[in-house]
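dumping this here before i forget
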Amino acid sequence: MMKYFIYILSAIISITLVNAKEVELEVVTESWPPFIIPGEETSGIVTNSIREILKYADIDYAINIYPWSRAYHLAKTKPNILIYSIYKTKEREQYFHWFCPVYQSTPIRFYKLTSNQTNINSIDAIKSSILGVMRGDNSHEYLLSLGFKSGVNLDISSNENANLRKLIKGRVDAVIQSEESIKYRLNQLGANDVDITSGMALHQGQKAEHCMALGIKTTPELIEKVKKGFQKWQKNKSL
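structure:
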């Protein structure tokens, strides 16, 4: 009986090791519908592009969804990890090998309940309100650089649905979303009848293209494979 048990255990370990070797690249991302939709198989507008690129690159990969701060930390510190969708900023540029764009620019705006009197058309006015933001994402980082402070005018959540619930309940004055995403999420929450108003775009004069990026510690061989896949995808996309 013991020999049988050891045999089965060895077989399981062998299968696990084989499967692990088959995955050359870990792909990390966040839930950002309709661009990135979690599920049994991650889907979405931008995810479709990522899958096409990696098919051209002939790379075995696995997509894992995490809170943004976790995904970003993994991609920044570990080898052979690709992250998407990520905006290319001066602060982030040094940590990654960049591939842009994988999808067109998507403006990110402030949104409030129409019944809320908060002015969301200028940064100075918005500073006197409370914003619901997601921990560690690009908007959070950018607002901190403008002098916003966590626990003062920034209310931090781990996901955007939590921010929207707070907005609907009046616990925050505004949230930061793309038009496509806020409509999708409100539908998910059964709150299509909630009357919202948009304000200024967060990154005035800056690109908001969707990019993918490989951590700086990624092996040269894998970087080259992804680069060639991206170039093939770009070429075929333009035909």
